[in-house]
Amino acid sequence: MSENSSIHHESTVVAEDTPRQSGLDGYFKISQRGSTVRQEVVAGLTTFLAMVYSVIVVPSMLGAAGFNQGAVFIATCLVAAFGSLLMGLWANLPMAIGCAISLTAFTAFSLVLGQGISIPVALGAVFLMGVVFTAITVTGVRQWILTNLPFGIAHGTGIGIGLFLLLIAANGVGLVVQNPHEGLPVALGEFTSLPVIMSIVGLAAIFGLEKRRVPGGILLVIVAISIFGLIFDPNVTYQGLFAMPSFGAEGESLLGTMDIMGALNPIVIPSVLALVMTAIFDATGTIRAVAGQANLLDKDGQIIDGGKALTSDSVSSIFAGFVGGAPAAVYIESAAGTAAGGKTGLTATVVGGLFLLLLFLSPISYLVPAYATAPALMYVGLLMMSNVSKLDMADSVDALSGLMCAVFIVLTGNIVTGIMLGFGSLVIGRVISGEAKRLNAGTVIIAIVLVAFYAGGWAI
Predict the structure, then answer these.
(1) What ranges does the record give for the region Disordered, renumbered to this chain (predicted)?
(2) Can you give the residue range of the structural domain that contains 121?
(3) Is residue 369 part of a domain?
């Protein structure tokens, strides 16, 4: 009812806007997917605010390895803009792409600092990883993996990513911290600290606003807490509005500096393959989980326009190597936008446009503290855990393998590890239960490859 009334109101008040809106609607299939232009824009802004931290974290991590931070900031914005616009305008899905934090850490601390590889060779490795990743995607291997993803593990990945997101957000604000004493590895943080209090209050506020179906409720909480932080938190400061992009001092730009021939060195190739393997299962699992949460699966449980979605993030890694960034992937934080109602590529297009703007408005990124976005991420994590209800407990081997996948994603802090253990337990469980006939060749092959990847010590 609200959608029809808003369209009627807009057509009455601003008649000349109708063709433009209908054009947007037709291109992105907004009405067809049960959304509105306003809802998509709000979802895009929500996703952007949930992942804008990456423009601080990625340059900081690569900076520790000797990269010029100003040049990496530019690259991080460009990768997020390119990938998200490609996902939005071509694949028409509400998933944002950016430099993957896990792969950024591997590039900085394993490749450059750990193995002593030069920055140009490291960027060459990122570029090569993108090329191999794209080849695997366009030849249908990634789609084949998705098709052979067992029902339980598909939902288990969503549950696990939800738990993982919850832990990341809670740890980021100090609600859950590393246990300094003997016992389990995590403990409750300083409960009375401002970030913890604001995160818990914000999460509860989102519960209430979403229950009342307040449009843009998640975004309202992010903005309200950011304003609160600006007024009461001395660590949140206004550092201006406009800043020209800085590529670093003369000769420090990373654009086109990759050394592809150096990355083809036999010493570097195993690291390239490790990046590819991690990206295949990490990014593919994330895409499946976010699409599932947004109800963008067809009757066979496959992602709508999944091939384009998979190609968008692999091509973005090629672009990342060229501009001087880290390997790209779909961000888990995209689920914040789908929870806010995003169902089409307009959501991702808004994210891409905002990252382009951020090139000139970089001081704004310091106005959104971690405790402003943590409630949104924790809320999304809790929502994704609802996949538990989709598990078929009558098929206990499949369902419990999915739960094993979910639990070990969060316990190991690694999506691929959870998927590997889920596949392994499913295959062994089917054989021992006398249900080997229910296994297909694809599932067995994937299980063997994943276990060998870990047993060989190549896992990131």
Answers:
(1) 1-20
(2) 34-376+385-455
(3) yes
